[in-house]
Design brief:
With about 350 residues, the protein is α/β, with parallel strands linked by helices. It has 2 domains: about 10-150 and about 290-315, Response regulator (Rossmann fold, 3-Layer(aba) Sandwich); about 150-290, 3-Layer(aba) Sandwich (Rossmann fold), CATH 3.40.50.2300. Helices cover about 45% and strands about 15% of the residues. The chain is built from 12 helices and 12 strands. The strands form 2 sheets. A 6-stranded parallel sheet has the order 2-1-3-4-5-11, with helices on both faces. Helix 10 (about 270-280) links the parallel strand 9 and strand 10 (about 285-290). The radius of gyration is 21 Å and the shape is elongated. It starts with a helix and ends in a 9-residue tail after the last helix. About 50% of the residues are buried.
């Protein structure tokens, strides 16, 4: 734990990490330690079946979440199935995966929903069958048995503070800003972008958002959209990308157009391309979440609920702004280079 306190995080980030660590310890103790001598036979989670379903398996973010879930299964004897849709935009594929879990009558489902509303019906059906559903990353508009995810409004404001602050340091107090976004209508992204816009407007009123582009979570599309924006707006001074796929396209466009000195770009999440872009200065920061925690604690919470024990209604592991000043610290390296797996039953 001491390594966390040696990193250049804010005090609030350090406190959040400490709080989450404490909560995890309490939850694991409640889940796996018998409450009485007579409960010994029923206390272990061994044998519980939990399916983990992510938005897609082609991204390091979701692969890290699956790896966390896999580790929890191994640590605590939970039978974990790991699944993901073909793409984040393929909601029907994800619905089919949940229906498959229902047909096998698993004990719990950990779900990173591709839509805040489109999976409500299948979630309701799961819970009516007695299957516990823990949602992660994206909140849904129906009831679940718990939620684990970042406060995306706050995380979006972190990105705005970074982008606006860097422009101010350069003496740039007015200019155009582009938001390069993944998928429209997903509450996680809506909150993230809202937090960015609100903070930017409040703290840096001279910076104006001139476009909000959606790339359907496709890097080549993001690249094309950013190329067009750079070409059409010589006074474009900043770009905010709200996930790693979008940020990869932003970084590639900035490099190809050789506008690193003109445009400040901040991204979200992390993958090898983003990390390389931060090292080169193409991206001046990335807001990094902890998807490994989502997966690990999601399995713990689902197994806890399946045992009839209390699972917290909400857990937020926080997000960290990563740049050249802290990216090589031990704690940040763990976030940037988590174990990954593409899943499978």
């Amino acid at each position: 734990m001491s390594r966390f306190f040696k990193t250049p995080f804010t005090l609030s980030t350090v406190a959040a990490i400490a709080l989450v660590t404490f909560i995890v310890g309490v939850l694991v103790a409640r889940l796996f330690v018998p409450t009485s001598t007579s409960a010994n036979a029923n206390a272990p989670a061994a044998g519980k079946r939990v399916d983990v379903i992510v938005k897609a398996t082609d991204s390091q973010f979701w692969q890290a979440m699956l790896a966390g879930a896999q580790a929890a299964g191994k640590d605590w004897g939970v039978k974990v199935g790991l699944f993901g849709a073909t793409s984040e935009a393929n909601v029907s594929d994800q619905v089919g995966l949940v229906e498959n879990s229902l047909s096998r009558n698993v004990d719990g489902i950990v779900l990173a929903a591709s839509s805040s509303q489109a999976l409500n019906s299948v979630i309701d059906r799961a819970r009516s069958q007695g299957i516990k559903v823990i949602t992660v990353d994206t909140k849904v508009t129906t009831a679940s048995d718990g939620f684990i995810g970042t406060d995306n409004t706050k995380a979006g404001s972190q990105a705005a503070d970074r982008l606006g602050g860097l422009l101010k340091q350069k003496g740039v107090t007015s200019g155009k800003i582009l938001i390069e976004s993944s998928v429209a209508g997903v509450q996680t992204i809506v909150d993230r972008d809202s937090g960015f816009q609100t903070e930017l407007s409040a703290r840096f009123p001279g910076l104006k958002i001139i476009a909000h582009r959606y790339n359907n979570n496709d890097t080549p599309t993001a690249l094309s959209q950013v190329n067009d924006a750079i070409s059409a707006n010589p006074d474009l001074v900043g770009i905010y990308a709200d996930n790693n796929v979008s940020a990869d396209g932003v970084a590639q466009s900035i490099q190809e157009n050789k506008v690193q000195n003109r445009i400040v770009a901040v991204g979200f999440d992390s993958d090898p391309q983003e990390i390389s872009a931060v090292k080169s200065g193409t991206l001046q920061g990335i807001v990094v979440q902890n998807p490994y925690f989502f997966g690990y604690q999601g399995v713990v919470a689902a197994a806890m609920s399946a045992q009839g024990r209390f699972a917290p209604p909400s857990l937020d592991p926080g997000a960290v702004l990563v740049d050249l000043s802290n990216m090589n610290t031990a704690a940040v390296q763990k976030l940037l280079n988590p174990p990954t797996t593409k899943g499978g039953a």
